[in-house]
From TrEMBL:
Residues 421-615 form the DNA2/NAM7 helicase-like C-terminal domain. This is DNA helicase. It comes from Candidatus Danuiimicrobium aquiferis. It is found in: Cytoplasm. Keywords: ATP-binding, Coiled coil, Cytoplasm, Helicase, Hydrolase, Nucleotide-binding. Residues 295-343 form a coiled coil. The lineage of its organism: Bacteria, Pseudomonadati, Candidatus Omnitrophota, Candidatus Danuiimicrobium.
């Protein structure tokens, strides 16, 4: 009998390679985790804020959604030491310091000076009820990687189903399909304010039977289009899952959906969700169901039974008969809790039409027996491909929305990045799909045309158009702001060339900062404030965290937002000041060589963009040379020598 012949397809080879790249990234994250955490002693970890040691359980209660909330503190109630776990962070729980793998993992739900509360998805081991001392540690990133590895395996091995169809589409082995043409004047738009490009995007999404891509450059109203598409699907009584890579992006989508009148249910830990949106979470709806109070009472009874079984504060140990009787009561009470939770679960879950959650929510037990008529993936250029496939396993039709000309997904391993782990599924589909299945939005509602034009030319083929409402707006048009030539100027590049303002390396972090450049940033900020611009309308951003820290120490004006460029993606302010930092005789630019970061920076301002940098260093890269030439062409170039 001959051996079975295995034919390896192009997609098999691709997904094997993708697995290898993801493994490289996992190894890099694990290496960093071990370097910063596991190699330190428990006391060192606690001093660094990465562990909390020798805690006791102060409370356990049921929160709905299958979550148990467990509170920890010191036995005498004294304050906890300073620690870095914030609400929404993932930490592991153990009874001993040695075991740091395969531990229960919880999400920080709440924190006070003397207590930290974790939310757990899964039933906790019985030892949580022992009168033990517990340890909380920064969790390993392993769990999220396993979901992505499972996702790659699932899509690679899929056969004769919708996931296999999407996989084959992504390799051009299948052609995407459209239904009958739908004339725009026949579509009943819920939002009458959509522009022509937005309407065409909605039209193409409705006509597509399987997939459509919406490219939304800065300020073009991508979310507005997605809300309209979702509202159309709701009217057609479709089941919809709306997803994005981050909780912040999910909250933004949920907020827009709620404002438009859509009743959506948010998946995920309430700890990671904005306070005003928590009433829309699955947890909230489950916890406020009438049966949930009964389940909570039963959980209290279960705790009492465990304490009775432990009986550490009584002299006489339990007899065998008493232990058997208690075990039976514990089992019976647990069964009652499970039955009640299942009843609540089915009533709440079966009544929902629109779900919102991160990509990994696609594995949630909510979706065990569900297939979505429509999957909407926003910020699809922010998630690595393996994570994007997770929700696609449950979809009949997919809308991918994003902007591949802004920052790609975060990949820590340089080798994996160089070999393409940061290339997204959005980009792959955009290259393959024809014009009937994709649309770029072109009318932007954010930037003065002089702020917009450089990025439009360099990243969007010169196709962006400024709406008349923003085309010529300046800070001087804002209430209470003085009208001066400097305030009316929408775009300035302040050149520090020749001043000797060399960058410095921050000890420990390896990040860069520039003290003299920061002084010019503070000077411009003060001029804007003196002219009447409100502090909350101004952002100061920089590519380097060390420069952000330096600026935070120097700027004492309450309300001014100071942030890294990466963290400011998706945001906007009336005025934005950018500190580029790099100034050296070798022309080294570091990660500023990825010009997509600069595209993000340049497109955050509505009325005033003020950039500080050294043209001597910047101009070693053609993109920055062109940027400086653009500043000169539109009258926005200014030498720092004029400031002396």
């Amino acid at each position: 009998m001959s051996d079975k012949i295995v034919i390896t397809t192009e997609s098999d080879q691709y997904f094997d390679r993708l697995t290898d790249l993801l493994r490289l990234e996992e190894v890099e994250e694990k290496r960093e985790y071990e370097e910063q955490f596991l190699r330190k002693s428990p006391d060192q970890r606690e001093k660094a804020g990465k562990s909390l040691l020798k805690l006791v359980v102060s409370d356990i209660h049921f929160s709905g959604g299958g979550h148990q909330l467990v509170s920890f503190g010191y036995e005498n109630g004294r304050p906890l030491p300073i620690y870095s776990f914030d609400v929404g962070d993932v930490v592991s729980l153990s009874r001993e310091l040695k075991a740091l793998e395969n531990l229960p993992v919880g999400t920080v739900y709440d924190r006070t000076s003397s207590e930290i509360t974790l939310a757990f998805n899964r039933r906790l081991p019985d030892w949580i009820n022992d009168e033990s001392l517990f340890y909380l540690n920064e969790a390993s990133p392993r769990e999220s990687f396993q979901k992505m590895f499972d996702s790659i395996k699932r899509v690679k091995e899929a056969q004769h189903d919708r996931l296999a169809y999407f996989r084959n589409l992504s390799f051009g082995e299948k052609k995407p399909m459209t239904g009958d043409p739908i004339p725009i004047d026949r579509i009943r738009f819920n939002n009458p304010g959509l522009n022509q490009w937005q309407k065409i995007a909605v039209q193409k999404a409705l006509e597509a039977l399987d997939i459509a891509v919406i490219h939304g450059p800065p300020g073009t109203g991508k979310t507005t289009v997605l809300v309209e598409i979702i509202r159309q699907a709701v009217s057609a009584e479709q089941l919809i899952f709306v997803t994005a890579p981050s909780n912040t992006a999910c909250d933004h989508l949920l907020n827009c959906l709620v404002r438009s009148g859509i009743k959506a249910v948010r998946l995920g830990h309430p700890a990671r969700i904005m306070d005003h949106l928590k009433v829309h979470t699955l947890d909230f709806k489950l916890a406020n169901h009438v049966y949930s109070k009964v389940a909570d009472d039963l959980l209290g009874e279960l705790k009492r039974l465990f304490r009775q079984k432990a009986r550490k504060k009584e002299r006489r140990p339990l007899t065998t008969e008493e232990k058997i009787e208690l075990d039976e009561k514990i089992r019976s009470t647990r069964n009652e809790i499970d039955a009640l939770e299942e009843n609540v679960w089915s009533q709440v879950v079966d009544g929902a039409q629109v779900w919102v959650g991160t990509h990994t929510s696609g594995n949630d037990r909510v979706f065990e027996n569900k297939t979505f008529d429509l999957l909407v993936i926003d910020e699809a250029t922010q998630g690595v491909e393996p994570s994007t496939w997770i929700p696609m396993a449950k979809a009949k039709k997919v809308i991918l929305a994003g902007d591949h000309k802004q920052l790609p997904p975060t990949v820590m391993c340089e080798d994996a990045k160089r070999k393409g782990l940061d290339v997204t599924l959005f980009e792959r589909f955009k290259k393959i799909l024809g014009p009937d299945h994709q649309m770029m939005l072109k009318l932007q509602y954010r930037m003065h045309e002089k702020i917009m034009s450089f990025s439009s030319k360099k990243f969007y083929g010169g196709e962006l158009v400024a709406d008349e409402s923003v085309r010529l707006h300046t800070l001087a048009d804002l209430s209470g702001v003085k009208r001066t030539p400097e305030i009316e100027q929408p775009f300035v590049f302040l050149d520090t060339v020749g001043r000797g303002f060399e960058e410095k390396l921050e000890p420990g972090s390896g990040s860069k900062f520039n003290i003299e450049e920061a002084a010019f940033v503070v000077g411009e900020l003060n001029r804007l404030i003196d002219a009447g611009v409100k502090a909350e309308d101004i952002a100061v951003i920089s590519p380097y965290s060390a420069q952000v820290r330096l600026l935070e120490s120097q700027i004492q004006i309450s309300g001014v937002e100071i942030a890294s460029i990466d963290s400011f993606q998706g945001r906007e302010k009336e005025a934005v000041i950018i500190s580029l930092v790099r100034s050296n005789t070798e022309g080294k630019m570091g990660f500023l060589t990825d010009v997509r970061r600069m595209n993000v920076a340049l497109t955050r301002a509505r009325r005033k963009l003020f950039v500080v940098g050294d043209s001597g260093t910047l101009a070693t890269i053609p993109f920055y040379k062109a940027f400086i030439e653009y500043a000169e062409a539109v009258g926005g170039y200014k030498s720092s020598w004029e400031e002396v």
